[in-house]
């Protein structure tokens, strides 16, 4: 059986990404710069002759828009495509749409103490802090976040595996991808994932392995092709 590999891309840069607002379950479209970045990614993936059995994204507009660009650039618009709400971004509740700096540099440090650096918080602590600050009651507890993300990706991998293995293309969100990586291998340091970066997982014998996190080489190569530098 061919091994199962998930190529997980973070969506293209959006309006909220550009002005530094927490997007969560709220949504804004890709900017012109964001569309160009995903075009670069699609061209780069195609240059490496990557083909995909199926495509998957969250049900957020920004991931759907990203996937449409990618499949067009890959020339693979006819492969099966599933939208799964389980691989949405974290929900920030009433903090959705607020400025990133206020959430991560203000709200969370105020909850855990002014000397707390939010990057040192565990994902569970971040989830608990967001729930405490959320006045709408929409934010999800850590147990719900980790279960939906892990089950969503496990089902994707098992579906591809049941077909004999191969590659799946997945588009989702920065914190969703980072959380998944942590759940698979907690020893991998946290890192901020760029728009259009690719994280690669393999799935064999019921286990995920993290091969690479936040790879920007596909985008870089695609940019060179589009700019006529190669």
TrEMBL record:
Enzyme class (EC, first level): isomerase
Tell me a Gene Ontology molecular-function term this record carries. phosphoglycerate mutase activity
Q: Which UniProt keywords apply?
A: Isomerase
Q: What is its EC number?
A: 5.4.2.12
Looking at the Swiss-Prot or TrEMBL record, what is one Pfam family this protein matches? His_Phos_1
Which CDD domains does this one have?
HP_PGM_like
Per its UniProt entry, which superkingdom is the organism in? Bacteria
Q: What name has this protein been given in UniProt? A: Phosphoglycerate mutase
């Amino acid at each position: 059986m061919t091994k199962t590999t998930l190529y997980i891309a973070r969506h293209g840069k959006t309006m909220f990404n550009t002005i530094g607002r927490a997007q969560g379950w709220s949504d804004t479209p890709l900017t012109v710069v964001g569309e160009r970045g995903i075009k670069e990614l699609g061209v780069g993936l195609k240059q490496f002759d990557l083909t995909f059995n199926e495509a998957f994204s969250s049900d957020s507009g920004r991931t759907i828009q990203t996937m449409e660009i990618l499949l067009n650039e890959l020339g693979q618009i006819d492969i099966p495509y599933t939208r799964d709400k389980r691989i949405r971004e974290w929900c920030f509740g009433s903090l959705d749409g607020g400025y990133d700096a206020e959430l991560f540099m203000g709200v969370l440090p105020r909850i855990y103490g002014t000397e707390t650096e939010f990057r040192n918080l565990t994902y569970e602590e971040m989830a608990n802090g967001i729930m405490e600050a959320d006045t709408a009651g929409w934010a999800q507890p850590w147990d719900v976040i980790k279960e939906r993300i892990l089950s969503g990706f496990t089902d994707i991998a098992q579906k591809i595996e049941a077909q004999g293995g191969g590659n799946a293309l997945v588009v989702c969100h920065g914190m969703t991808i980072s959380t998944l990586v942590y759940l698979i291998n907690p020893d991998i340091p946290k890192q901020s994932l760029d728009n259009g970066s690719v994280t690669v997982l393999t799935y064999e014998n019921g286990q995920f392995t993290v091969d690479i996190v936040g790879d920007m080489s596909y985008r870089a190569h695609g940019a060179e092709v589009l700019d006529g530098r190669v």
